[in-house]
Amino acid sequence: MSTLITEAERRYLAAVLERPELAVDAIEARDLAHPGYAAVYQAVQELHREQPELRGADLTRAAAERADAPGLDAERLERLRADAPADSEIPFYVGMVLDGSAQRDLATYASTALASGETADPETPRLNARHAEQYRQLFDTPWPDQAVAAIAPETATRTGHEELLVAALMAYPEQARALVGIVPPEAVQDFRCRVAYEAVASAGWDGDFTTDISLVWQIAKAREIAIGLGDTPPGYTEPDAAFVARLARTETDQKTGVDTAKHLLTEDIKASLTAERQTPEMMDRSTSPASVFHHANQIDPHAPPEPQHRQGPTQRPAGGTR
Questions:
Q1: Is the pLDDT of residue 314 over 50?
Q2: What's the fold here for domain 2-142?
Q3: What DSSP line would sit under 146-195, residue for residue?
Q4: What's the predicted TM-score (pTM) here?
Q5: Packing angle between helix 191-205 and helix 240-249, nearest 10 degrees?
Q6: Residues annotated as region Disordered (predicted)?
Q7: Of 25, 70, 65, 61, which Cα lies nearest the Cα of 45?
Q8: What percent of the chain clears pLDDT 70, i.e. is strictly above it?
Q9: d(CA 134, CA 127)
Q10: Per residue in 57-67, pLDDT tens?
Q11: In Å, what is the CA distance from 81 to each residue of 6, 17, 22, 158, 264?
Q12: Residue ranges per domain, the chain?
């Protein structure tokens, strides 16, 4: 089973094989954690400098021969190139590759500083090491090669409707403003649905798109933040990657999101009205002192109100009393 960071590196490498000009100097082979991907990336960088016109199957064959990485022969690299992501997704994978590299460098620095004992403030490298370890755990979030099948919640349940809402927004992110206007993120109750809904809506609000990796990354970060704040996020038997993949495969149309959002809003209104009706039973049954019905069982509209205690003078906004 792969991890979140190696899947991001795999997709970035696929894009580089399709468009070797993406193998820019800003990213070095050492920035990739997977040794095989790093070797192929280094080979593509060198080949593109030497033979800028080399592309397609010719490039993958040459890169496979030069890298000589186990399990990454020309046939495998050609399949990888054929699965290259869309241009809109590439910046996210670049960011993850660089972020992962920076966190590994930070961890190395922290461990070296702690081992040497020469730092004047040993607490700083400890904090850095703790921070890097947290990110390592996030980057090592399991990423199944194929999303495992899982039993989805019943569609009639609250969670089922929330998942359908997220699936519809993933398919039609341009509906973000309309859906958030009906169901704001804070109204979504399931932890993973709320994080995914907010992430997709935030991107869609600005006309951007998200990827499955970005959603799994956001869920993993939100879980770590919640734990750091002392909360206990719910546990799920279904991996986050499988959850996102399942929602991406859910059949929806342009009406699904609005219809589901309206259903959730209706359910929330019903729940609110029910709570309001139950509240008086738990409170003092007396009514407002201004009402003639001082007691709930007093039904004579002609009964005089009980004497009221006069309050002292009240300050007007512009001064004076009343």
A1: no
A2: DNAb Helicase; Chain A (1.10.860)
A3: SPPP--PPPTTSHHHHHHHHHHHHHH-GGGHHHHHHHS-GGG--SHHHHH
A4: 0.68
A5: 60
A6: 269-322
A7: 25
A8: 78
A9: 11
A10: 999 999 999 99
A11: 16, 5, 13, 41, 42
A12: 2-142, 158-263
